[in-house]
Amino acid sequence: MKALLLSGSPRKDGNTEALMDRISGHFEKAGIKGEVISFADVTVMPCKACGVCRKKTDKKCVINDDDFHRIFEVMCDSEIIICGSPVYFGSATPNLMGFLDRAGYVARSNGNLFARKIGGPVAVARRAGQNFTFAQLLYWYMINDMVVPGSSYWNVAIGREPGEVANDQEGIATIDRFAENCIWLAHKLFA
After folding, report:
1. pTM confidence score
2. CATH code given to domain 2-190
């Protein structure tokens, strides 16, 4: 089994990436290959709403940016997809949402490629906005017919400066439980 973890933060080695690395570590211990992709290194154009992907069946978007197609293929090959974002002005980062919009359109236009994959969102903020960002990302999972396990709370954490999220004990416990539930569910569905 494979898991893809998208860190939607433009900040390299920030709190979102730290949580994605933590979840990936849980997956690796359970024998699930985890790959973390940081959007600090990714440039993806937003969807143009051209509708061409609804007419094609080749898993390609007409916008020609290599990062999109590379990551999209990894998504298609993964049983688990986790998306994390810091809160930027009350919502998920534009780069991550632009990518997810395009991925969703292309996947749905090619037979719902993400249907019944496992996944869920993670949101991090210095103070507030996690719940809206969590819900915003959760809607993406729902419209793509994915299976989202719960946790002991919403998958949110607090931290601003890099590494600060490690001080949020409740947030870390929630993220750990979410990772455990993804693993449990993956073994039920894909073993």
Report:
1. 0.96
2. 3.40.50.360
